[in-house]
Amino acid sequence: MTALPRSASLALWAAPVLAGRAPLDALVRAVQGDDEPHAVDSDDADGLDAWPRPTALGELVERLGARGVRGLRLVLPVPGDPAGLPGPAAVNEAALDAGECVVTVGGPPLALVPEVVEFGSAYELGHQVTWHVLACEPAVAPPATSASDAERELRQALLTATDVLTELDVGRWRPDAAEQVAALRRPAPTGPLPASCSPRAVRVIDLAWRVRSIVELAREDDGAAVSGWEATRRAQELRGLDTVSRRALVAAVNDGEPVSV
């Protein structure tokens, strides 16, 4: 299973850690994974005015808690679907470039946007991550799909998309892709998730991100689609599947977030 977006892992772990129900080091391990230790750039964050500025991920989470933040809401924006972005324009542009961010629930309105720099070779790839903490407008959560609705929509989309990819002879396209498409119907182990995640949220998170991984893999090659019509049809199916899976992941991650008061 491809790792969750870093922002998704951060949002999942933030609420239980800030509530004292999970250890901070578990959050850091889950978010950093195999990355180099994550850095923090908070020079543009008016809500973190204490000195010195946090320079590491764990320090940042502790500082957010001290400022009254109770959780973080996941946003996975793409061009044409900016749902959940708080503004102003500079924050939205940074989040769109990254394809992900989190916004604070409670405390000062802040957006945390990861910047990922790859280094090394294709055989030994590393990642340096810097979390940019940006002052933003107070976030209003968009109308959200429930985790139960998200699971139903995602499973239906999977049936449709898998059938279409089979019709397009995906088996001749790339053996590794064909194997992963077949694996969509089988359970897979989840990544490091906090104990506070509901069983439904765990199922949706696991399924949604595996599907997004297949979409990314499918877009690397036109495969066995030999006509323009076939290629267009598959592209449409992949866009639809990506939208459903992206929204399902957001719904599942944000399903148990603290309620603003």
Structure characterization notes:
This protein is globular. The model has no long low-confidence stretch (mean pLDDT 82). By secondary structure, it is α+β, with helices and mostly antiparallel strands. It folds into two domains: 6-143, no CATH class; 147-250. The protein starts with 5 loop residues before the first helix and ends in a 7-residue tail after the last helix. It has helices at 6-18, 24-32, 57-66, 89-98, 147-167, 170-173, 175-183, 199-218, 228-254; strands spanning 39-41, 71-75, 101-105, 110-120, 125-135. It is built from nine helices and five strands, in the order ααβαβαβββααααα.
Concise summary:
By secondary structure, the protein is α+β, with helices and mostly antiparallel strands. The chain contains 9 helices and 5 strands. It has helices at residues 6-18, 24-32, 57-66, 89-98, 147-167, 170-173, 175-183, 199-218, 228-254, and strands at residues 39-41, 71-75, 101-105, 110-120, 125-135.
